[in-house]
Oxidoreductase, FAD-binding
Amino acid sequence: MGERASCAGSGPRRGIRLAGGANGVDGGIILSTERMRDIRIDTASRTAVVQPGLLNSEVKKAAAEHGLWYPPDPGSVEISSIGGNAATNAGGLCCVKYGVTSDYVLGMQVVLADGTAVRLGGPRLKDVAGLSLTKLFVGSEGILGVITELTLRLIPAQPPASTAVALFSSVQDAADAVVAITDKVRPAMLELMDHATINAVEDYRRMGLDRTAQAMLLVQSDAPGAAVEEIAHIVEACEKCGATEVYATDDPEEGAAFTAARRLVGLALMQLGTFYLEDVTVPIPDLPELVAGIKRIAEDCDVLICVVAHAGDGNTHPVVIFDSEDPDMSERARQAFARVMELAIAMGGTITGEHGIGRLKRDWLPLQLGDDVMMLTRRIKDTLDPQGILNPGAVLR
């Protein structure tokens, strides 16, 4: 008694930590929630009460058995836990239309630093009683409490989607097309992959992607009664922005094959070497400028930066590839990583759209938020965790 240790939360061991948010610290304790796997679905209220150890894909599967759908759809859907998704407020491929994790968390049980278990919210679609504390904990990366249960909003099953795939001779043209598409429609999915990413996927697994394309857009529409019209606009927008080829299909299996290729990006890029994974987001009209800036940074630092993006909401994942055995290249990669975040901040964007701050990006957080917001964040942290035992070193120093 009298001794205390720092605690970092962790989900299933199959998962990965994209910003160092769940890495352990010397003298600390890793708290694993992977055995907390209960789930109850209420079809009448369209809610699911789940424990944090379930994978996102398992929640989706359980909901689908009742004709329901849990929309948040990170690329890591098969390996990321629902608790981790809540801790980082994860988004994903479908968030351009359907929103992110916080849009579906109606309530939770959270254990505070002093051991108090608090129940927040509940299975109600509207509830403004008191402060919005549920929203405070979603995306807090484990620095305020440990989530032990979530009440999630479900919606009716997603209708079959129509798919368009467009190839471009430059990433810039593809980014311009994203702006043109979103000016008129709100697609269910709008993803971007650059030349290096396309080829990394093909090297990892033959998916039939065009290796000569400099960029590819994957777009889906599931608008009931309007998908054909939306896809027609998407095709027209891509062609006007210089697409070299556009292919459209109503076949769900074909659409799923292209989506599967997009989901392989993370595993494929891991084969290229050590990497820094960015998560910068800007307003959609500024996406072409961001893409151009990333290209300049790659050239200036003489490193490979692969660009993949949830382009429909301006959330990009530039991946800085380098050889960790080469000190000079490692330093250039670190500089590129920093410059991409600084570029996003200068453009009025954010250094993280869905992966979180963790330990990797915390030094750039004050640059984005400013002293006043950092002070407020620190005061909240110190109030709920005065001894600093919850995920020490994440988000805040």
Observations:
- The first helix runs from residue 56 to 64.
- The chain is about 35% helix and 20% strand.
- The mean pLDDT is 94.
